[in-house]
Write a structure and sequence with these properties.
Blueprint: H1 12-37, E1 56-58, E2 65-67, E3 75-81, H2 86-102, E4 107-113, H3 118-127, E5 134-136, H4 141-146, E6 153-157, E7 163-168, H5 173-184
Parallel strand pairs: 3-4, 4-5
Antiparallel strand pairs: 1-2, 3-6, 6-7
Length: 186
């Protein structure tokens, strides 16, 4: 700090700088404190409660198309994933177990490949025992319509076609079953 010529203390310019630094630090601490209180998987989506975005995508696992319109009247679980995504590998066993439990019921799973090559995604899908339909989101338009923030993300669509829920990050078996059972009971 510099003192004025008479030795009376810091100049008014330095007082302003100190006050600005203190205010900035308090603001940063407040933002961080509020941010850490929120669950990072709880990012609000304006499309929850609205009709789910329709998609008509090329299948990855076999020839044909995957169309949301063809799944009307069923509970649909849409999982966005990629072969390079470590959390996607972590959640795969839970997805497979829950799929096996509900596959003969009124529940449909759809995997949508996000920013990945078809060959790598197809190998990933098969290697991890995922037998539900998988589709290529060429160009990312479907992910954009759903508001995908980062993968993995799982969306729950009710029998009426409304998007009823969203889970960001790797999903566990209990969370999947709770969401599916809630939609099946409606």
């Amino acid at each position: 700090m510099t003192a004025d010529v008479a030795g009376e203390g810091p100049s008014p310019g330095w007082r302003f700088v100190r006050v600005a630094v203190v205010i900035s630090l308090f603001a940063l601490v407040a933002v961080l404190a509020l941010g850490f209180r929120r669950d990072p998987r709880d990012i609000r989506s304006v499309i929850v409660g609205q009709p789910a975005p329709l998609f008509d995508l090329e299948r990855l696992d076999e020839p044909g198309r995957v169309r949301l319109a063809d799944m009307s009247g069923k509970v649909v679980v849409v999982n966005f994933y990629a072969s390079w995504c470590i959390p996607c590998k972590e959640e795969a066993p839970a997805l497979v177990r829950v799929w096996e439990r509900y596959r003969k019921a009124d529940v449909v799973f759809v995997g949508i490949v996000y920013q990945d090559s078809p060959d790598a995604a197809k190998a990933f899908h098969g290697r991890l025992g995922q037998t539900w339909p998988a589709a290529l989101d060429d160009g990312g338009r479907t992910a954009l319509a759903f508001g995908v923030f980062g993968i993995p993300e799982t969306y729950f669509i009710g029998r009426d076609g409304k998007l009823e829920g969203r889970h960001i990050g790797p999903i566990d078996e209990a969370t999947l079953m709770r969401a599916i059972d809630a939609l099946r009971s409606k």
